[in-house]
């Protein structure tokens, strides 16, 4: 790192490494950092949004409408979303779900290719679907003694320790024998009621409808679902080659202890094969550039950490740099591993298309990868504030939040005491009748929704006609009208103080002044070049028909020109190298000098035109804000002097006494 810093101080130089830089160099470093980071941010946005596709939503919606919203029949409107019993489950699975999985004919009755199921005529099903269930054993809970003669068995809610692992039913086949998560290479699932393992009893269906239908009928006839069943999963994966997207589908029906059924579903539409079209290869180029940027920032952070040690972590922006780099490196590693895993899985599937294709694990981690990139992009955009913090207007937000943090945290304690008191009250009073208050967590989110005006008042009024209106009215008054406005008042007062203080301070850098100073420097350089040309013209005017080099050098040395400059100008037109300029050579030199002089005059006029006032001295003029700021400081000094003088007079009076 030290070698890099010595060899390339400008390339990896930052505001933290250039500790001895001038004010102008500091600003140039900040501007260079900002430009490099903007390019990095553009590249990051291109590769993240390039992985998304507007067709993702429509693909998900088509599959969801087909498997979730399709009714059993025009007369019976039961669909997957409305399953409420085991009977409904079998009607839906043997009806719209089975019909949706197997599209074997065109709409005119023509047969589709054998052994291929193109769902909606466009989406090929990879492998075969799998139906799996998880059960709990009898006796997993305790029945009150007085009811033991009436209730023959007790089945607790699902947990890994209470799983039923015994063979049941017909006793033969995968559907009636327990298989562990390792044997199935399964993954856990977070359902509505519990978190379920990837183990259980499963049945892989066929690639043909006429073979799968008897399999499901057999499960139904032999009571595959019973008192111990707690969850049933239907898993399958489809691929659309037109848009290069996989849709990994999991239909879940949970059977709670109370009876009935709770349906839920997951449609993970993901892009697992990354590089197919020309645009995909453009994204690959963006990924390579992204890796180069990460390498650059890793070296940069190492230099800063080496220079500042543990003090480096005292800055929030430095910690944010580390977060962005770590998330980016994890994303790069995951991208490589995912590409290898998809290739291996597709290879095994192509060798045997009649096996179950378990893309659930890959789809889950691809979704987490997308979530991680979303968080990374969020932090990357927030990081822009690091490079624009030299402007006081752009630091008002961060200064306000930093200053009012203690007051807000102190107020938050009082706010959440009242907030959680209302949440507990709502859970106890309305939890058994209103879905929004069915759990303590739901109560918390419901109360946030009340603050935003999204709430069903009639639901709690119907649940309790007395306590419902009292709960709602007092909550709105104390939380919304009092506490929330106190919270806003704390921030508003702090913002007013910060704005007043910033009004009396000057920006670390005035961008306008910086460019005006550059304008002045450029103008001065042009005028110096013009003066040099005038000196050479005067030296030519004082010469006769023949101008010797010694005379030319003597005259220009007296005017402050260097030997190198004098020799270069003379030798350029001394064609015969005799150290004497004749009339023709002097004429060429005069023409050259006149041309340079005219060009300089044009550049000077162009620079003056670019300036709003046309006066070079405007860069150093006193603005109205500067004058007001200076007047405010003078007034404060006068007030301090008056107070000091009164104290001195009081002290002198005491001494005289």
UniProtKB/TrEMBL annotation:
<feature type="transmembrane region" description="Helical">
    <location>
        <begin position="320"/>
        <end position="349"/>
    </location>
</feature>
<dbReference type="InterPro" id="IPR011992">
    <property type="entry name" value="EF-hand-dom_pair"/>
</dbReference>
<keyword id="KW-0966">Cell projection</keyword>
<dbReference type="InterPro" id="IPR003915">
    <property type="entry name" value="PKD_2"/>
</dbReference>
<dbReference type="GO" id="GO:0005272">
    <property type="term" value="F:sodium channel activity"/>
</dbReference>
<feature type="binding site">
    <location>
        <position position="576"/>
    </location>
    <ligand>
        <name>Ca(2+)</name>
    </ligand>
</feature>
<dbReference type="GO" id="GO:0051371">
    <property type="term" value="F:muscle alpha-actinin binding"/>
</dbReference>
<dbReference type="GO" id="GO:0005509">
    <property type="term" value="F:calcium ion binding"/>
</dbReference>
<dbReference type="GO" id="GO:0050982">
    <property type="term" value="P:detection of mechanical stimulus"/>
</dbReference>
<feature type="transmembrane region" description="Helical">
    <location>
        <begin position="281"/>
        <end position="299"/>
    </location>
</feature>
<keyword id="KW-1133">Transmembrane helix</keyword>
<dbReference type="Pfam" id="PF20519">
    <property type="entry name" value="Polycystin_dom"/>
</dbReference>
<protein>
    <submittedName>
        <fullName>Polycystic kidney disease 2-like 1</fullName>
    </submittedName>
</protein>
<dbReference type="InterPro" id="IPR013122">
    <property type="entry name" value="PKD1_2_channel"/>
</dbReference>
<keyword id="KW-0107">Calcium channel</keyword>
<feature type="transmembrane region" description="Helical">
    <location>
        <begin position="34"/>
        <end position="52"/>
    </location>
</feature>
<feature type="domain" description="EF-hand">
    <location>
        <begin position="561"/>
        <end position="596"/>
    </location>
</feature>
<comment type="similarity">
    <text>Belongs to the polycystin family.</text>
</comment>
<dbReference type="InterPro" id="IPR051223">
    <property type="entry name" value="Polycystin"/>
</dbReference>
<feature type="coiled-coil region">
    <location>
        <begin position="583"/>
        <end position="610"/>
    </location>
</feature>
<keyword id="KW-1003">Cell membrane</keyword>
<feature type="binding site">
    <location>
        <position position="578"/>
    </location>
    <ligand>
        <name>Ca(2+)</name>
    </ligand>
</feature>
<feature type="transmembrane region" description="Helical">
    <location>
        <begin position="369"/>
        <end position="388"/>
    </location>
</feature>
<feature type="binding site">
    <location>
        <position position="585"/>
    </location>
    <ligand>
        <name>Ca(2+)</name>
    </ligand>
</feature>
<keyword id="KW-0175">Coiled coil</keyword>
<feature type="transmembrane region" description="Helical">
    <location>
        <begin position="470"/>
        <end position="491"/>
    </location>
</feature>
<dbReference type="GO" id="GO:0015269">
    <property type="term" value="F:calcium-activated potassium channel activity"/>
</dbReference>
<keyword id="KW-0325">Glycoprotein</keyword>
<feature type="binding site">
    <location>
        <position position="574"/>
    </location>
    <ligand>
        <name>Ca(2+)</name>
    </ligand>
</feature>
<keyword id="KW-0813">Transport</keyword>
<keyword id="KW-0406">Ion transport</keyword>
<keyword id="KW-0479">Metal-binding</keyword>
<keyword id="KW-1015">Disulfide bond</keyword>
<dbReference type="GO" id="GO:0005262">
    <property type="term" value="F:calcium channel activity"/>
</dbReference>
<keyword id="KW-0472">Membrane</keyword>
<keyword id="KW-0106">Calcium</keyword>
<dbReference type="GO" id="GO:0031410">
    <property type="term" value="C:cytoplasmic vesicle"/>
</dbReference>
<keyword id="KW-0812">Transmembrane</keyword>
<dbReference type="InterPro" id="IPR027359">
    <property type="entry name" value="Volt_channel_dom_sf"/>
</dbReference>
<keyword id="KW-0109">Calcium transport</keyword>
<feature type="disulfide bond">
    <location>
        <begin position="141"/>
        <end position="154"/>
    </location>
</feature>
<feature type="transmembrane region" description="Helical">
    <location>
        <begin position="408"/>
        <end position="430"/>
    </location>
</feature>
